Structures are given as C-alpha cells and as structure tokens.
Amino acid sequence: MYPIILLCVVVALIFLYLIGRYNKNYWRKRGVAFYDKNKVFGLFWDFLTTEKAMFEILSEIYKSNENAPAVGIGSLMTPSLYVMDPQNVHHVMQTDFQSFTYRGPIINEGDLLGDNVLFMNGPRWKLMRQKLTPFFTAAKLRNMYYILDRTAQDFVEHLKQNPQKLKGNGFDRANEFCAAAIAAAVFGIGTDSSFVSPFLKMARDAFTLNWVTHLRYTVAHLSDSISKAVGVKFFKEQEPFFIGVVKQMFRAAEKDEIKKHYFTDICLSLRKAGVMKDLETGEELEPTDELLAAQGFFFYVAGVEPTASALFGALTELGKHPEIQAKLQKEVDETVEKHGKVTYEIISEMKYLDQVLNETLRIQTPVGFINRICTRDSVLPIGNIEVSKGTKLYIPIFDLHFDPKYFPEPEKFDPERFSPENKGSSDMAYMPFGKGGRVCIGMRYARLQVLAGLLHLLRHFDVLTHRVPGSRKYAKGQFQMRRVDNDIELIPRQM
Ligand code: HEM
Ligand SMILES: *[C@@H]1O[C@H](CO)[C@@H](O)[C@H](O)[C@H]1NC(C)=O
Question: Cα–Cα distances in Å, from 161 out to 154, 288, 380?
Fold first, then answer.
C-alpha cells in the first residue's frame, strides 16, 4: 500500500515541477519577468495560505518588479500575465479591445444568475450590453434620481430615530442605504424605504468572504476545465429567492400601466420586443425571466457591495480630514439652500463634491484589479510582449492608483488632485471603473447613488473617524479592496 502512495506523490511532484518549469520558460522565451514564488499556482498559493487579499499579492509583484511592463504568473497550464505599464493596460482595455473581449472566469452552464453581463462573453455579451445600455443614459438617471434622493432622506430619518446606529459598523450602515436605494431603483419596490430586507441579506451572502468562497474563486480562476469538472456555481444559493422575486415583480408590473423608469420597465419592454437580435453577428437571445433576473441580480449586488464601499470610504476619509469635510459641507449647504431641494442638475453643480468622490475612488478604490482573457493573439507595445490567445490577464487598479509616478504622495487624501488646474494629469492611471469596451456599465449610476447618500448625510451629520484597534489594514478580499482599520461616528449637526 505505502509504496503506491509514495509513487503517486513522487509522480505528482515531478508533474508539478515540470509545469512550473514550463511556465517559467514560457515567459522567459518571450522576454518577460516571472513570478517565482509559486510557479504552478501563482497568486493562488498565497491567497489560500495567507491572510492577504488578492490585490495585495498582485501589489507585491508590482513593487518588486518596478519598471517592468508586465510579469508572467503561473496558473497551472494557462499562461497568465500581470500587465503593469499603463500604456500596455491601455492597449488591452481600449486600443486592441477586440483581442481581449473576455473577462473571466468562465461561468458554468446552469449557474443561472451568473449568466449576467459581467460574466458573459463574445457575441452574447455584446448583444446583452447593447440592450442594457439604455438604462444608464443621463436622461434615465435624471428621471430616476428622485428615487435615490428619497431613499437618502429616509435614511437620514432612520438614523435619527435609531441613534444606536450612529456609531460603529459604518460599512453596514452604508450597505443598508445602498441596498435600499438600488432595490428601489432596480425594482421600484415599496412606498417607504426599507433598510433591513431579505434583499440586503442576499447581497451580503453573495459576497461573503470565507474559505469556501475563496476556494471557489480560486478554482474558477485557476483552471476552466477543473471549474467545469467540479461544476463550480457562484450564485446557486441566491437563485430560488431572487428568480422567484423577479418573476413576481414582472407579474405585478405587467398589470400596472404606469411607467416608473425602473429596471423592471426595461425588462418588460425587452420581453415585449421578443427575441433580441444582433444584426451584425446574427446572435440571438431570448429574454426569459431567468436571463433578465440574472441581469437584475448583478445590478443589485453591484449596487450594494462596491457602492457601499465607496460611500463608507468617503465618510472615513472625511472623518480623518475635518478641513476637507468643512469645505465640502459648506459647498453642499450653500448649493442646496440656493435651490431649495436636491435634483440631478444641482449635483453636477457641486464641483468639490465631485473632486472628493474621485479622490475617494482613487485612494479607497472598491475594485482592486480587473481580469481579461486574450481572445486573439496580440503584442503589447511596451516591451514588445507577445500575448497568445487564451492567456489570462490581470490589470491593476490599486497599484496604478498608489504608484507615486502617477499620484505623488499616494497615501495622502487630497481632492486637489482633481481640481480644474490639476485635472487630466494622470488620466491614464486612474480607472476605478475600468475602461474601454467593458468599462463598468453602472458607473454614472453608482456615482449618483454615492453622491445622494453622501450629501444628505453631510447635511445632517458631522463625521468622525476612529481607528479599529488591532485590525489588518485591508479585508482579505477577492476582487475587493476594502480598508477595515477605520470606523465612523456620525454626530448630528446643530442647524
Ligand atoms: C462604486 C461602485 C462601483 C465600482 C467601483 C464598479 C467597478 C467596476 C469595475 C472595475 C468593473 C470592470 C470594468 C472593466 O473590466 O473594465 C465593473 C464592471 C461592471 N459593473 Fe461596476 N462598479 C460599481 C458599481 C456598479 C453598479 C451600481 C452597477 C449596476 C447597476 C455596475 C454594473 C457593472 C457591470 C454590468 C459590469 C460589467 C460590464 C461589462 O462587462 O460589459 N457596477 N464595475
Ligand atoms: C471624476 O471622475 C469622472 C469619471 O471618472 C469624470 O467624468 C469627472 O470628470 C471627474 N471629475 C473631476 C473633477 O476630475
């Protein structure tokens, strides 16, 4: 018995050794530096065996390969590359987008809620993206802004009536606001904002960070074939609840003639128009309840987790910088008092608010990095790096935002980086929402939701930031980047 086990172990070790050597040679032949720490499992070795977030592991690579345009990484037998130079990043995301249209990981058949525009690829993605884009135009946002505004006002009332919520768990509070706002925007549910709902629980569950979800994340990213073989499904637990709710919502909305500017309306009109067709590619998609539910599901979870992270991030930074907070409150107070109420138009009048949000999204960027898969051979301009079809790419957000070459004194929270005089100086390296053909479709919506929450909170409260003793700086996230060493206290303002 023992000799057989021993033999298996030896064979496996030789196998792993050969894969490692293959990976290293693969990139050496292309003149690209290689991440030596684990040649077989690459990033995922540290991810599964340490407390580090994925973006922190990438960040170590970034820092120890200063000035390298890209670094090769082992990922079993799939070539993987960390693209670091902003011009190479630009090439992948924008200039040669047609060669990098997949994001990854590839979702398995039967993961119904995973069949959303974030994970879709190829012609299906293109068609779905086209059909969803109309939900996010400026005109749509202007029409629906009142929903966000009402939710923000209700939230302020809710906090005043529940003063125990003013201190501690600031991220949870931001989550409660965001969940209520996006639920109202996506489904138009309720006449009163609800800050504790089964939806909020679902959104939290969908992004729970624990070893089970870390392992699932690892398998999905490490190897498509293993992921397929073991049948990884990301959102199976949320499926019955969410699809059920969406079906009910459609039935109810079908009976109601009134236009509400909600996601439900888009879905209903897509369904009425029948099979979606892309004339260019011939691709067809049937707007089933499941397909539409999957899109709504992703909008919903994206409207909660990263958006709450941005709102909480803004509050913690303002709580650390009373002079910036006072300047912002002055702008908000004056603008709101001048107009009597908050509308879509007056938000765009508040220039300093915009600067504060942009700097927040730099220093507390909710998404730490981006994935792409190469779908057609290409050459990265800096370093003349050949990238073959099938290669998995990692694109930095955090590392670019914290590189002193692009943002001097990167640890300093300074909204003046985005003042009219300084604006544009580091555009290439700034991309909290990604860029190019697959840029965040919800960008303008997400900004509006954060701004609505932020400005109503600042009208009624001052923010103080406290350190959380003994905490790591960042949560152990997958794609997320979230600071956990700060918490906030809201103090009612004397008006
Ligand atoms: C502050 C909040 C948010 C941040 C920081 C954020 C960030 C991002 C990033 C970095 C990407 C990847 C972009 C790329 O690959 O180039 C992305 C994709 C996406 N986001 Fe967001 N997002 C936020 C909120 C939202 C919201 C509220 C929605 C929907 C209502 C949304 C919908 C999407 C979709 C559908 C994609 C995939 C687009 C595609 O592949 O075509 N996001 N987001
Ligand atoms: C803030 O960022 C948004 C989107 O990235 C951009 O449209 C806007 O011009 C920026 N504002 C400033 C003041 O830089």
Answer: 11, 42, 56
Contact 156, 181 (CB under 8 A): no
Pocket test for ligand 2, best of 347, 354, 443 (most atoms within 8 A of CB): 354
User: Whole-prediction pTM value?
Assistant: 0.95
**Tens digits of residue pLDDT in 114-130:** 999 999 999 999 999 99
**DSSP, residue by residue, 102-129:** B-SPPPPTT-GGG-STTT--HHHHHHHH
H or E element at residue 307: helix 289-320
Specify the ligand 2 atom closest to the Cα of 351. Answer: 13
Q: Among all ligands shown, which has an atom nearest to the Cα of 446? A: 1
> Of the bound ligands, which one is closest to the alpha carbon of residue 433?
1
Residue 118, token pair as written in the block: 């974030």
Quick one: which of 25, 6, 55, 51 has its CA closest to 368?
A: 55
CB 460 within 8 A of CB 160: yes
Cβ atoms 347, 451 nearer than 8 A: yes
CA 117 to ligand 1 center in whole angstroms? 10
C-alpha atoms less than 13 angstroms from C-alpha of 290 in its C-beta half-sphere: 12
- Give the ligand with the smallest distance to the CA of 453: 1
- Cβ(440) to ligand 1 under 6 A? yes
State in Å: Cα 333 to ligand 1 middle. 31
Instruction: Please list the rounded mean pLDDT of every run of 10 residues in the chain (495 residues).
Output: 87 94 96 96 95 97 95 95 97 98 91 93 95 89 92 96 95 94 79 69 80 90 88 87 82 68 76 90 91 89 93 98 98 96 94 97 98 98 97 98 96 96 85 97 96 97 96 94 96 88
Q: How far apart are CA 288 and CA 223, in angstroms?
A: 30
| DSSP for 310-346, written as a single string | HHHHHHHHHHH-HHHHHHHHHHHHHHHHHHSS--HHH
CA 356 to ligand 2 centroid distance, Å: 10
Determine the distance separating the centroid of ligand 2 and the alpha carbon of 128, expressed in angstroms.
27
Domain residue ranges of the chain, discontinuous segments joined by +: 2-492
Identify the H or E element spanning 379.
strand 378-380
Tracing tokens 């047609």 back to the chain, one arrives at 98
- 3-state percent breakdown (helix, strand, coil) of the chain, nearest 5: 55, 10, 35
CB of 438 shorter than 6 A to ligand 1: yes
Q: What's the rounded Cα separation, in Å, for the pair 75 and 78? A: 5
Kindly report, residue by residue over 407-443, the tens digit of the pLDDT.
999 999 999 999 999 877 778 899 999 999 999 999 9
Give me the architecture of the 2-492 domain, per CATH.
Orthogonal Bundle (1.10)
Nearest atom within ligand 2 for CA of residue 443? 4
CA–CA separation, 138 vs 120, rounded Å? Answer: 25
